[in-house]
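Class, carefully examine what follows:
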Amino acid sequence: MESVGVNGMTANIILYKSLEALALLLGATSALFIPRLPAWGQGTETTPFNLQSLYPPAGDHQSPSPLRGGVWGEVSSTDSEHQSPSPLRGGVWGEVSSTDNPTPTPLGEHQSPSPLRGGVWGEVSSNNAPPPSSHSAEDLKSEGLEQGISQQRQNPPTQPQRPELETIQEQLDEEPDFAIVPLPRYSSIKGIHGTLDLILTNLGENDQTLDLRLEGGERTIGAIFRYTDPWQQSGPFDPGYQLRLFNTRSPEPQFLEGDREVNLIHDHEAWVDRLGGSLTFYQPVTATGVVLSAGASYQRVAIRNSAFTDRLYTSDLLGNPLTFSEKGLDTLVTVNLGVLQDRRNSTEWPTQGYRFQLATEQSIPVGSSDILFNRLSASFTQFVPFQSQTFVFNLQGGTIIGDVPPYQAFNLGGSDSVRGYQDGEIGTGQHYIQGSVEYRFPLIEDLDIPYSSALGGTVFADFASDLGSGNSVYGEPGEVRNKPGNGFGIGLGVRLLTDFGPVRLEFAVSDQRDLSAIFQIGERF
């Protein structure tokens, strides 16, 4: 979807944004009334899903987008779903998303993030989001180390925190739960589409989670399977891990947006076909919430022109290469390492504390594509309380050493990068720096309406730059599309705290005087 000037918004843009808001509202409403059933068939209704953790803002597998909330594992593009690796969009190693934490814990108390408490910490994305308060594997997904270390859809979601041991034991005493969660969606990258999550939680004695997400629509098709074991035992330093398998096809921001449209022959859009998996381990190491992550991932990446085709493309209409392999089929194997510390007083409505994450991803040259690079990315977010208001400062950056495929480069612009721009509209670079400042203030602190408890406002400013590295990316996808490489946006919005996670409605204007409306479930930082 193209950006439009403030004074020139077309009827199509208004229609698309209306569809996006309607889809999210319908999905959130439907999830509230879908009962969680015990796995073996006795139906009992429980509390509504936390859609922020179930479907984090950044989404599934994604291309790198700047650390969106920071995960170290998977990075993604801006529609909170499928995305290329975002530097640390919500988390690198896997995919991360926030978990249920309705009662803020004092900053001084022990809250080391549970690496896989129903999800990954992590592109994205992402940038659409799964696991609910029942800890589905998607919790890990929104912020990851798998690609931002590996790759994301722009993503990064909020990082789940480790619950108190008494709460853990209560959860382990429960029977397994099964849930089916459909969610209609709309995004500028994937168009009108929908997701269906089949989630089995509280397995075994360690709160393990099985999550199968099916996705299909106008410009996307795919499936993602996750198995998450967040606790070996109920101790504060016990490790966890996540296994993730995926097969997805959709366009990605590297090959879209910009002042110039460059497609495949016959004017077809480039679809990125990703097939692979990852295994990531998490180890809390200090009582102050420091968690180490290590893992490996495999991807077979191809460029196609639609959802259902076996045809491969190695270059675009102008002859710019899209893959390293001359056969159009790249093999990408990476080893990922990361460190995270989360000291926020709440994952859903933070007002003080900080979160820091650092991730590295090293590719191993195998197969005919022979891809060799190292990606390093970092993100720091500080929450500063002032009476009843909060100032939020986020600074992130990343660099790639070596030759990176265009579908793995950093994307700038979008709801998880610079608001006011579309996903990837600012640039696709080998290096980047990005900063955001937000002023958050309460509007109604004790909201007396169903499923909602508080309403707040926000004023923000975002900036990002590819540091002139657009021409160093293999195939120069940003340069050939005349992406500016730098961008600035300002805006305002409202934030609603609900039983299914924070909901954001924001309006932003870019320095190109383009207007963007954003409606998402989940925190930005």
